[in-house]
Specification:
There is one protein chain. By secondary structure, the protein is an alpha+beta fold. The strands form two sheets. It has a three-stranded antiparallel beta sheet, covered by helices on one side. A hairpin with a 4-residue loop joins β1 and β2.
Length: 151
């Protein structure tokens, strides 16, 4: 049984976007990449995902241009690291919107605060405009940080 259709050629841009990022694991991997994860083991440990699931998602995300794969020298051999691309980083406002909705409409066991940090070190509660200096935030001049707090 086919669980979903191929929407890659659909005229609707939302459908085409969902064809790439509609899998929840993709958005969770992106979240971790935006937080600085680059290595397979970092993604696996943080997300607690099976190796085969993670391998498939990382390969798809590289194919779709959300991540790039680059070799790095491990202790005994060369491994791949996964670096976020501009296309992947441009999904930060989407993750921001999902986090905002989740904070307002779900009851978490623990809460976290999301902060975006611009290249000047200012913190912002918005992913699109620095709430400190008003500068437009783009994938090139912002990073994402989360901090867990008690409910």
């Amino acid at each position: 049984m086919v669980l979903r259709q191929d929407w890659s050629r659909h005229p609707c841009p939302i459908a085409r976007t969902l064809d790439v990022v509609g899998d929840p694991w993709v958005l969770l991997v992106l979240r971790e990449a935006l937080l600085g994860a680059t290595k397979f083991d970092e993604f696996r440990t943080t997300l607690q995902v099976a190796d085969n699931v993670l391998s498939k998602r990382l390969a798809m995300m590289v194919d779709e241009g959300l991540l790039t794969k680059a070799p790095y020298k491990g202790r005994q051999r060369t491994h791949d690291q996964y670096l976020i691309t501009e296309a992947g980083a441009d999904l930060l406002p989407v993750l921001n919107a999902l986090a905002h909705w989740g904070e307002n409409h779900t009851d978490p066991p623990r809460r976290h605060t999301a902060m975006w940090i611009d290249h000047n070190g200012h913190t912002s509660t918005s992913a699109t405009e620095c709430s400190t200096c008003g500068e437009e935030l783009t994938s090139a001049n912002r990073t994402y940080k989360r901090q867990w707090v008690a409910p």
